Amino acid sequence: MTRIPTRTAHESMQQAMEVNFSRLTDAQRQLATGKRLNKVSDAPTDALNANRLRNQEKLSNAYITAADDGAALLAAQDSALQSASTILIRVRELVTAGSSDIESGNGQQAIAAELSGLRDQLVSLANTSHDGRAVFGGFAGSAVQNTGGLVTWVGDGESIDRRVSSELTVSVNTDGRKVFGFNAGVPAGNDNVFAVINRAIAAIEADNADGARAELDNIMARQADLTNSLGSIGGRVNQIELARSQAEDDVAAFKTSRSILEDVDMGAATVDLKDAEAAYEATLAVVARMQRVSLLDFLQ
Amino acid sequence: MSSTSLQIGISGVNAARRAMEVISENIANVNTDGYSRRRVEQAVMGRLAPMPSEVPREIEAGVKITGVTRLRDGVLDNAYRSQAAGVSGAELRAEIAARAEEVMGPLDSGVQDALGAFWASWERLSAAPQDLAARQEVLSSGERLATSLRAASQQVHALSDLVVGRGGDVVRQINTYSDQLAKLNSQIGDAVFRGAAPNDLLDQRDVLLDKIARLTTVTTSQGKDGVTNVYVGSFPLVDGITAQEIVVPETGGPVWGINGYPVDLSGELAAAHEAQTVTLPGIQDSLDQIAAALRTVVNGQHAAGTDLENNAGADFFVGTTAADIQVNTTLTPSQVAAGHSSAPADNRNALLMARLGSQQLTGIGTVDGLTATLAGRLGESAAATEQMSRVLTTGLATLQDQRESHMGVNLDEELSDLVRYQRAYEASARVMQVADEMLDRLINRTGV
């Protein structure tokens, strides 16, 4: 039989109280903070995964910001090109009217004046800026320059990219040269929409119906360019929106996974707390009873 | 005849009284650390009386106290002492590992979090390169990262100081104990030589041996006259009445030992030595490696970019180690090289900067990888040492219980013994009374 010295008995009771008390405070702390993991060593693999998820969540949030910015840029281009498209339709009508023989001289003057107004409107559309950036000019501050009706290309052809997911980078600007017809290989100023309008104005003013008519094809070619660009913008908007909603789903998924790793299961924690309470109370009851028992009470 | 009874009675009374004294001592020391309970050894005091004409006859002469012995189990003592060092070493390792884990900061705002936030700030800058606020954010999140690395480095440094102090304390304690042990050996030797049983001194020596065994593994051997020799490895730490010293070199270098001879370190001594020479320098190296890798990739890519003032990106981080890394203080938001040209809309470099966390450095790895590895290593080590310490502590507690079961005082037991010897005392006194009455009758009433 093992002898149990008085002090050992006392110490083991004390230890039992301490163990159960620390279990109780642990359970209370978990419920109070709602956190299962407070440091890596609590569960190394889970904690490192939680850290990874936390950082991925930051990136996904940044992707959402980039997608929003990209979508806004593309929207600005879309609305500018829609307006430009309306203007070109009017330009075509005017040039068609101006090239018909029945227009009087006064009528032709009016047409020419309206055309040059429309040209200036197109210039300002080409220089549409969003947040201080010319959306058709690449990195440059503006896309085109209007010097007394002579419009020249001053932008650069750089692509502005937005990373909208870890895998996908989307160009969120449109090269103004493609939209407005500053085509490579064509002598400068010959093919662009502004030069075309200028030539049409000159032809109409000079009563050169054939000359004006000749520009109709060029105007249609520019209209086709606009439509293409609009199509491309639409496609990219879709791409970005898809990526954005994916990123939002990711953020939610990362949060959920992290919560599973890091947060206390409230139901289980409550049961743990009840358990710990019961165990602690039982220990206190036993200790109280044991300490009352002594041979001294029975010796007369 | 009656006078013999009287003598026997006196011997019984004396023995019982002595026994009750020892019991009182036991009861008084019920809560004394390292006290081993005592028991009175008694034997019958019979002797053979030579009879001239007959065979020798046994004559009753009562009871005698042959000694007061300490009840403890030397085998268990040795077992306890051989394990104690391992346990306290594991406890100190766990304590150091738990502190070391804290250098990476809290989970949701530590080094790893700051690193993720830094890359994300470049990602956000790439979405708004013309925005000075986004540029400022890159600078401030870089500074937050650098600050958390510096804080980590400082904490390792502080922890290192603490461990050096702790190691010094351990060594000083060992030396104090060995000194005291040598003195006790001398006192015990004197007492034993004079034939006394120095139980209190022996208890004191056992307490000291327990204490020293927690600091480093020692072996003991019994010398002449109750002297105990203490060895660390094969080197004598206490040789009879002379004590040797454990010495730590000024620099805290690797050769710790007795009078300059290296010995096998164990227990707290080994834990402190290991932390001081291996673990903490290792953590510091890893932090420095992270800082250097971060500086290399970030500065390299930043220099490849162009800022708003049309200059190549200046150094983003300055400093060479985790202790002094910081964001270049001369850098203004417009000098953050977000693009490959000075155009405000150019975000090409920012897009590349945001991805530097996973850029492989030959033979080193990635910044993200290094950081996660260090955080993981510290966490795992804290968890593993804690677990190890708990397992070993439980094992030692079992041994200690077994030891206590031999040497500890049980009050109920002592009380019942007290009653037992009280009865013996009363009975012996009664014997004396009866003998006295018999003599009284013989002397005062016979022939009256």
Give the uncertain stretches of chain B in residue-range form: none
Largest sheet strand order of chain A:
1-2
Q: Number of DSSP helices of chain B? A: 9
Sheet-strand content of chain B, in percent, reads: 5-15%
For the record, the CATH class of the largest domain in chain A is Mainly Alpha
Number of separate domains of chain B: 2
Q: What's the β-strand tally of chain A?
A: 6
Question: How are helices and strands ordered from N to C of chain A?
Answer: HHHEEEEEEHHHH
The number of distinct β-strands of chain B equals: 13
Shape of chain B: rod-shaped
Just name the CATH architecture of the largest domain in chain A.
Answer: Up-down Bundle
Share of helix among residues of chain A? 55-70%
Quaternary structure type: heterodimer
Strand content of chain A: 5-15%
**CATH homologous superfamily of the largest domain in chain A - what is it?**
f41 fragment of flagellin, N-terminal domain
Main β-sheet description of chain B: 4 strands, antiparallel
Taken in chain order, the helices and strands of chain B follow as: HEEEEHHHHEEEEEEEHEEHHH
Q: Please give the most extensive interface between any two protein chains, plus how many residues each contributes.
A: A-B, 50 and 59 residues
Query: Radius of gyration of chain B from the CA trace?
Result: 38 Å
Question: Please, could you describe this protein's structure?
Answer:
The complex is a heterodimer of chains A (300) and B (448). Chain A folds into 2 domains: 53-257, Up-down Bundle (f41 fragment of flagellin, N-terminal domain), CATH 1.20.1330.10; 265-300. Chain A is built from 7 helices and 6 strands. Chain A has helices at residues 6-33, 44-98, 105-126, 176-180, 193-205, 209-262, 266-292; strands at 129-130, 133-134, 144-147, 150-153, 161-163, 169-171. In chain A, strands 1-2 form a two-stranded antiparallel sheet. Chain B has 448 residues and is of the alpha+beta class. Chain B has helices spanning 2-28, 74-101, 111-127, 132-193, 199-215, 267-303, 348-353, 367-407, 411-445; strands at 38-44, 47-49, 57-59, 63-70, 219-222, 228-232, 235-239, 242-243, 246-247, 257-258, 261-262, 317-318, 326-327. In chain B, the strands form 5 sheets. A 4-stranded antiparallel beta sheet of chain B has the order 5-6-7-8, covered by helices on one side. A 3-stranded antiparallel beta sheet of chain B has the order 9-10-11. The model of chain B has no long low-confidence stretch (mean pLDDT 90). At the A-B interface, helix 1, helix 2 and strand 5 of A face helix 2, helix 3, helix 8 and helix 9 of B.
